[in-house]
Each structure stands twice: as C-alpha cells, then as structure tokens.
Amino acid sequence: MWAEEVDRAKRTVPAEDLCELLTGAEIGEALGVEVLEGTATGPTKCAWPISGATDEQGRPAAGVVLHTPKTPVWLGEPTAVDGHPARRKGGGDVCVLRVLLRPPVEDADDLPVLELSVVGGEEPCPAAESLAGLALQRLPSA
Questions:
Q1: b/e string for 114-123 if b means 16 or more Cβ within 10 A?
Q2: Distance between CA atoms of 81 and 100, rounded to whole angstroms?
Q3: Which end of the chain is more exposed for a tag (fewer CB within 10 A), N or C?
Q4: Which one-letter DSSP state was computed for residue 60?
Q5: Pick from 62, 56, 16: which is nearest to 36 by CA?
Q6: d(CA 73, CA 75)
Q7: Residue 103: per-residue pLDDT
Q8: pLDDT value at residue 54
Q9: C-alpha 115: how far from chain center
Q10: Which of 41, 3, 16, 55 is nearest to 117 (CA)?
Q11: What would the pLDDT profile of 46-56 be if each residue is shown by its tens digit?
C-alpha cells in the first residue's frame, strides 16, 4: 500500500495552521466562486465554505476541506501533486485528493496524508490538485 517514495518529506500541522495554508481568494480563484475564509472544524481539519451554498439545515453544502486523517484509505486513481504520490477520487462536482507527505510510521497517531476535498465549482479535481500543490509548498519540511 505505501510503496510510493516521497522525495521532499513534509510534516503535518494543527488545524489552525492548515487554515493558513490557503486563502479564500486562492480557493475562489481555483473554483470560480466566492469562498468564505477558512475555519478550523476539528483538531486536524479546516474548511472553507462556498458563499451561499447551504443545505436544508443551513450548514455549508459546498466548499473545500483540508484534513490530515488518522486512518487514511489509500484508494483511488494514482497521480502526483508537486512530486508527492497522491490518489484522486471524484465524480460530478466532488473530488477527494489524498497526498502522501512522508513515509508512514507504525504509530496510531501518525498523520502521513494530507487530504483535500472539493465539493462544488466547475472543475473540482483540477482545482483540488492546484490547491493541494499550494498547500504542499507551504507545509514545513519533515
């Protein structure tokens, strides 16, 4: 499962710092829509909602989520982002991109993957790859 190599290892950061990896303007430009500023929604997750896109309960129904999952599922179409191995799954207006930051270790608290989910916009997978590339450049080296 983890046979891929990472040339320039990166380390993960807390959710507040994940929110600083991208700006609402950058996300809005990539998606072609107006995006609100990012908000930490958990210890390992930051979300940027698309302005005006809500569900029946008034919760954001579209946007971008940057996340470092504890138990990543390494499935999807193989690709690469800024030299990092990645997996992409998507269809319609949804795209999930998982990028390997560094070789994983045998530790329950290890967070070796950066996950970027895009719901909405005209072309979510190209936008996800572009935004993940920006985030990777801003993550600290491991």
A1: bbbbbbbbeb
A2: 9
A3: N
A4: B
A5: 62
A6: 6
A7: 81
A8: 65
A9: 4
A10: 41
A11: 998 887 766 67
Q: What is the pLDDT of residues 109-118, one digit of tens each?
A: 778 899 999 9
Tell me what pLDDT residue 55 has.
Answer: 67
Residue type, 106: E
Tokens of 142: 């491991």
| pLDDT number for residue 96 | 94
Place of tokens 């309960």: 57
The residue ranges of the chain whose pLDDT is under 70 are 1-2, 53-55, 57-61, 108
Q: Give the residue carrying structure tokens 């950061």.
A: 13
Burial annotation 65-94 (CB, 10 A radius, 16+ → b, else e): bbbbeeebebeeeeeebeebbbbbebeeee
Residues in the chain: 142
Buried b (16+ CB within 10 A) or exposed e, 32-58: ebebbebeeeeebbbbbbbeebeeeee
Helix/strand/coil percent split, the chain, to 5: 20, 35, 50
pTM of the model: 0.87
Phi and psi at 138, nearest 5°, equal -95, -10
